[in-house]
């Protein structure tokens, strides 16, 4: 039996886990029809090189960021919150994920 077929996509970088100065993963979002930034995917852990490069590009978001005080779960079906730092949604990331997407359009597995 074959695994899921990779699906390429693009999404806005909306937050980072870890710190903005040393991000562990990125939380990616897409704007819905009403213009709200909605969670779409979480990346796999970033390489040391990617962490350094992103630290120079990412800017902490102000209090008006749509994900300020929003809780995401740490894993699908988990109740533990995912600690994240919202960033200014100024960058679009290209990613590759599998086809495991829920009804809201969120990738269920971390993306590359």
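Q: What amino acid sequence fits the structure above?
A:
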């Amino acid at each position: 039996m074959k695994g899921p077929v990779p699906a390429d996509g693009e999404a806005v970088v909306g937050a980072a886990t870890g710190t903005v100065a040393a991000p562990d993963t990125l939380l990616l979002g897409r704007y819905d029809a009403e213009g709200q930034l909605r969670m779409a995917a979480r990346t796999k852990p970033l390489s040391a090189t990617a962490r350094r490069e992103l630290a120079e590009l990412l800017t902490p978001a102000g209090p008006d960021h749509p994900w300020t005080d929003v809780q995401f779960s740490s894993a699908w079906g988990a109740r533990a919150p995912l600690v994240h730092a919202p960033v200014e949604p100024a960058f679009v990331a290209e990613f590759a994920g599998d086809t495991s997407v829920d009804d809201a359009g969120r990738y269920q597995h971390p993306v590359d």
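Q: And what stands out in the fold?
A: DSSP finds one helix and seven strands in the chain.
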